[in-house]
Amino acid sequence: MDNLRQRIASHAVWLSNLGLRGLRLDLSKHVALGLRLRGAMLTGACFRDADLRQADLAGANFAGADLRGTDLRFAELAGADFSVADLKDIRLRGANLNFATLYRAQLSFADLRFASLIGADLTGAQLMGAQLMGVDMSRSCLRGANLGGADLRRAVLRGADLSGANLRGASLSGAIVDRNTKLTGVRGLDCAGFVDLDLVLQRSSPPPPSPQQTQYL
Description:
Elements: H1 2-16, E1 176-177, E2 200-201, H2 211-214
Parallel strand pairs: 1-2
């Protein structure tokens, strides 16, 4: 762990000196189960094919980082920043990504099954072919996201903003939306591939009648 912290410190120098000093953090193929680096500055670092299952990286900054093929199953990533990071083929099954920032992140073919992304920012994210079955994206922002061919079966999309998103070829059987889910300008909802579309509209219970109404019941 001391060696890792030294490497992170050297990475910070590399960042602050635009690569002229220090060394970029490269943990490709590194195995560190349960790693704890909450709030770490990991911008531009490389974690390609690393095994970081059950790591606690809440609030860490991975902006522009390379996490292709990284295994972060069941990791704690709440509030982490993955802006414009490359997460193709990443494994995030069961991970906590609540309120994480994935602005314009590359998540093609990522495995996010049963992950929690409540309140996450996925504006402009690339999620082509991603596995999102059972994911909770309540109140998340998916404006302009590309979900073409993604598996969203039984996904929870209550209050999510999918304005302008691409859903061509996506599977939405059993996905849950509510009256606050925004679908303005969504592309693909009327495509032939959506013949079996089954969006379950979960509406709030009606308010109790007022005293004036009850007297007439």
